[in-house]
Records
---
Amino acid sequence: MASLLAFPLLTLVLLHSVAISTRADLPGTWDLLIADAGIASMHTAVTRFNTVVLLDRTNIGPSRKMLRRGHCRNDPDDAVLKHDCYAHSVQFDPNTNQIRPLMILTDTWCSSGQFLPDGTLLQTGGDLDGVRKIRKFHPCHAAGSCDWVELDDVELTDGRWYATNQILPDGSVIIVGGRGANTVEYYPPRNGVVELKFLADVEDTQMDNLYPYVHLLPNGHLFIFANNKAVSYDHVTDKVAREYPPLDGGPRNYPSAGSSAMLALEGDYSTAIIVVCGGAQYGAFIQKSTETPAHGSCGRIVATSPDPVWEMEDMPFGRIMGDMVMLPTGEVLVINGAQAGTQGFELASDPCLYPLLYRPDQPVGLRFMTLNPGTVPRMYHSTANLLPDGRVLIAGSNPHYFYKFNAEFPTELRLEAFSPEYLGPDRANLRPVIEEVPETVRYGERFDVMVSVPLSVVGIVEVNLGSAPFATHSFSQGQRLVKLAVTPSVADGDGRYKISCVAPPNGMVAPPGYYMAFAVNQGVPSVARWVHLVS
């Protein structure tokens, strides 16, 4: 009898050990960077000084980080804290894991952002007193005292809540959509607002046209996706240049958002491929259903093709609120989110803890690889950003109206880093180090990059430029990776190699600004060096 009782116990032990082994064998590693960042980051951006700006909303009540003494915010209209001495934005230094409070004055709830050519973070809109506000953050070294500046001499023409920003080839920024704003406008301002009827046409009874996915194509037009449809928009004439076929699988934007990314631009830069993955089923938001399964379908389209069609495939998991992060290699990390419900406060369940690696060059059915799962649910209002060292910073998750720590999915203040497989110790001998690279590069310019590699180089060492996007609500605004034309590396002695590169030809391929320059050797990226791309 004892042996019979021992059998199921032994089976459970074996199954448990198999589960642990399987999990450990999956690629990628997780690290806790800081246990309490003080705020839950709804919006996140990496600056050219290798610091990270984390931003929540102001009318959320007390955070866990105090402002500097004597720097409280007074707002008689704030329903929670009229005299607010708590930080709702912070600067994080990944090199030291130090947090510095920043002061934001107007409400940034569900706002938008983009880096300008000089490296300044432009931040627009929000709710209440922030709906028309324009703010700037001029980044500085980690030990500096830079802070938010709210502009008083200019404001948005339309209120922008749940809008999307995208830098343009001339360095200006287009601001697209928002709740009740089916228009576009520009910074610096030009001719007020322009109606974009497309946004009104795709709005349904639960909206589904908010935070549209906007990608700058290498022909200069904008690929704008909302709900389940997309157009090519000419921002010079403010006209829709073409319509794309609808994407099957239901709505894809807020409040039903999956995510989207434009794949790396390379070769002659004439081809742009857009991927849209995941989303909630229509009706989940209206019904406030937390259990409705998310779908896992992905559409992929050559946006520059004369006859574009959506190529469909499925992820291993249904996912709502996932983030798609362009890695230095050109692969895409899909991370964060839930497998059921919809966006909104306390409207999702079943966190999707497994990241995925999307490998664009593989055939349909083999493009997704399941990676090592995390342990911290990252639900509504979470973010993911590529760091210059190749890790991915994971922040936020607050599915509650205020901070709430005693809940099934609590407000999340922890910052984590996910390290893709290319950072594993077995690949350390392949990891290049950029020894020399110009700080400033002009369009079409030829320049040299000097790298060192522990093992002899075999094949081409890529030099890829990655933008620093503004991540919020499952979409990285302004995200871009450009693979430069390079010649085979030439040995220069002592493990050093010279790579001759050609800068992007124009601002349509890569808008002016600061980029993370990565050397990539056999799929292993260096730590990036910041390069200023100018006209």
---
Amino acid sequence: MSEDYMYARDGTEDSHNNPANKNKTGKWKACRFILGNECCERLAYYGMSTNLVNYLQIRLNQGNVTASNNVTNWSGTCYITPLIGAFLADAYFGRYWIIAIFSIVYCVGMTLLTMTASVEGLNPSCDENGCDPTKSQVVVCFLALYLIALGTGGIKPCVSSFGADQFDANDEAERKKKSSFFNWFYLSINVGALVASSALVWIQMNVGWGWGFGIPAVAMFIAVGSFFSGSRLYRFQKPGGSPITRIFQVLVASIRKSHVNVPHDRTLLYETTDAESNIKGSCKLEHSKTLRFFDKAAVEVEGDHVQGLISPWKLCTVTQVEELKSIIRLLPVWASGIIFSTVYSQMSTMFVLQGNTMDQHMGPNFKIPSASLSLFDTLSVIFWTPVYDRIIVQIARKYTGHERGFTQLQRMGIGLVLSTIAMIVAGILEVIRLNYVRRHNYYDLEYIPMSIFCQVPQYFIVGCAEVFTVIGQVEFFYDQAPDAMRSLCSALALTTVALGNYLSTLLVTIVNNLTTRNGNLGWIPDNMNRGHLDYFYWLLAILSLLNFLVYLWISKSYTYKKVAGRLG
């Protein structure tokens, strides 16, 4: 067996810092531990977040708008903190150790949250009139929530990238498996979410919040155990130094040489002479014709060499310049995901509040909590993921000739259309619900005699949209990111979820302020039967449609990354 065949050619190493043996490390035998980790971690996350809006209402005595905004603000933070973990992983510690460190923070947060719901003195006192939390109890609860936000955010951008690192991009067979990995990775997320949105939500509403949060905490400890169990099988990508520093070096060098003309012959631009990139863990990148101002950083002029040495703040390689260009080209695609995330965030807020007003009975004796309806989103993902991977891709490949059936940009665009349809369906249901209320004068009825299962279509369509947009986005950002910035770009993709949640908070706040003037109840009052939630859904549908039209223009003009050399 030749050495080229025996060892991975992407620069990865094994747990003993030796070149990764392809037969002993990586691939699916390593990924099963990563998928197990992700499944249990997502069970923990969704187990406490799916029903969080009801916990804040019931145990912390918060109103609809306050509870909804607190959930979206916290959820947004969960998707901003990935920038911290991603930077540390790419620059200094590597993905493995960042997952390990932030998992411990995550476990501390889950344990503290469980204590706030079960330990006397930390949990609010409640009676038949409701709960009366003290300020210190509220503070401890939110401290636990934001420790969880730091923990989950720290590991989230690293897990998917670490899993993809287990497949050698320079091996055709492994490269095809890498594409499937992202589908199965997202499937594992939703298997965990399925248990969380069904059994755990029911436990929280019927058994108690202590058990309801305690089980997710145990799941998180299992997730950590699963991750460490596969350590000897993993392939490790070396951190490449601070990507932020390299970006600023290109910016500074470009500005310093703003008066310099860029030669038409790209071979005159500065690049290392050997076949390898001088950036650890990164391939050489081919020069692109866009954003030519930054090419000035790679133009050699007198003064770049001081005593035979090159200052990276004066002269940068083509690969370093192309790293920055790749990030800039990703930004418009990244921005188009914000509205999608705003739509997605409605499942944990407005969909739940809408379901709270409907008949939740399944048979004469069993009530399904409104937050548990998100299991139909999860079931949709579990259904559509293998269908997409095994059937849709095969059919699409015959017509498009593309290895993956659709390009990643096409896949994301289909999801954006589906998310718009989901908001239209949700709006139609709310119109029907409000008409039913008016026709029977049910304005002050807590639960109207209209089955909560009428919400299933909107959840199912959102789940289908996730399979196209979210999985496509994760794969796209990993694939198009510079090799030494993959965790950072995965985190960048996740920040669309954060900004989507913050945008939802902003929209709810603006809508509430505008529609409650002059003593009006507004679109989203505490009594939803007297509001107009349908108007809010129409607003999101219009924003989603406009976002898709802009996305079409963005996707047509996108320039894909091209690799020119081996890993350094």
---
Amino acid sequence: MAASFVTLFQWRLNSMLLHENEILLGVKDQIKSLISQLDEAGSFTGDVGMILGRESGHGSWASELRGILRQAEDFVDDFVIRAYGQTEKDRKDSIAEFGKELQNFNSRISEILNRRPPVEAPLMLEEIQRFVRSNIPSSEDKETDLVTCMLNYINLPYDLKLSLLFCCAFLRRHYQSIDGLVRGLVAAGLVQEKPGELMEDKAQENIDKLISLGMIEELEFIRDHFRVPSPYCELSLGVMKAEDFFMSTANSDIMVPPTARHVSIYYADNTIPNTNSFLHSLFFFSEMDFSKACSDCLRNVLHNSKLLRVLDLKNTLFESLPDEVGKLVHLRYLGVRESYITKLPESISNLRNLQTLYISGPGVGFELSNGVLNLAQLRHLKMSAPAIDGEVTVPQGISRLGNLQTLESIYAGSGIAKELGVMTQLRSLKVSCVSNDHADELYFSVMKLSMLRKLSLTVERGRERGSYKYENSFFPRLESFSPPPLLQTLKLVGRLIEMPLWLGSMENLTKLYMCYSHLSENPTTILQFLPNLKYLRMDKAYKGRRMDKEFFRVGGFPKLEYLYICSRNLVEWTEIEEGALPCLKQLSIYDCRELMLLPEGLQHLTTLQILDMWGVHEDLIRRLSPSGGPENYKIKHIPLVKYRGHMIPSVPGRWAPQ
């Protein structure tokens, strides 16, 4: 992986020139000279030979190059930490020393490059087979697939190789959102930064390429989440084992090797291992609640791992974070998911490079202090509280964060709604507890956000005792709203008096979530003409008892691929016109307890791959059964049918072709 190390170090140096200009004025020439030297080194693709374990002079020089690049990068990161804690005089001395050491690294790299072999020998099939057998446990019939995948991996550009390995380390057996992967890749420094370009767009482009190649795939049952399919998962783990650069393990007692830079520990017990001091990424997914002792373990990890750029802790249920987190000068991603944290330490304001802050848990609310306003590089602020009416109170002045692209689960009262109107760089906005006192100002501000791609609005929940969630909570004056033109995803949670007419004009909309709308009218009358809608979730959106062919007509929903219907009121769904829903791939029917028949015409949906029925009447399941069910003809063409009755003792099941 020597060539990939070259690429990563080049990206790191270029990023420093963009962001650390203040302290690098005296050493710019040395940095640019080193970048030029690395350009020459990068022309030799030595990582394949290293992975395959070739016994040659090439292996020796490539190993040396990788070692010196590790030293150089660690030296650069340590210099940044020291420089920002020094007086002006001490900093001048450090910069002078830094420049001399850069020249030293440049000379050593040049000497190593002079010893490289002129031409790398062609890859031999036997070498790849030997690598597969040594590093990836598999049966003989699976070996051929693994060898083919290895060849595909070898032919990938460096950035896609790094993205694939990071996917596997980031995920392993935990599902992850694609948006989360994008943020992780950017924060870990695995995406090249270029002036005038958003790194998130480049990371998304890399992910899309890997999806098109079949190396990662979106989950069929959780939208916008992904996994690394077999055998690419096994292959990635084998490459990680050979390199010790990425590491993924279920053993929290394991010793982390000094070469590891990105470590993922999943299904961990009640401890965090001692990590090496050069670690860049730590993903920790606990299987159980953490004790105070483990909280102390985290304090030790933070003290020892000063170069961390990504720290993602899941299911730890921490009540607070130690102050030591504020000393992680290089930290770009901080995630504490499924925790009891309700506020952050004041030291969080020291994280001058932080790009993503993601806090979630069962708490009812979360209040951000003014310290967050010091996080000038913050791009994604994701805060979620799953409890009813969970909200995040952000400080006034939040609009000062000019790099912010994502702002989620915030309460827009107390003047925040007005501030949103100047945050025109926002791409994703999620607002909770929308109420009469700030709704008009909120709508007016959102209409100004010309870059917005995702919008979620949740109405303030009614307080009546015994009331069903959002049953008496209406969106105030939503008809006065007009969505930004580039909006692709819209989620509305709360009652609607009627369907907003502006919904029918959203030509760029691809995903629509309508939850607890409780409409008496047919919502698809307007929605069926949306030209790019691919995902439609109607969760208690329609309170009628009958759906007929008017809901899904020929010519409507030309690109719809996923349809979700949830309604305890629905009793009859009579018909789907033949030729309707020409692209539908998945139909999910949830909690429709009174529905006894699926519509006539379902058998004509030849593109349908998955039928999900969850919480439906047992009589419906019996009618559809392949074992003599009279309605089975409607679904027998569907490759996968999953079901579960609404009665508590019911057991989940599935029908698939034999």
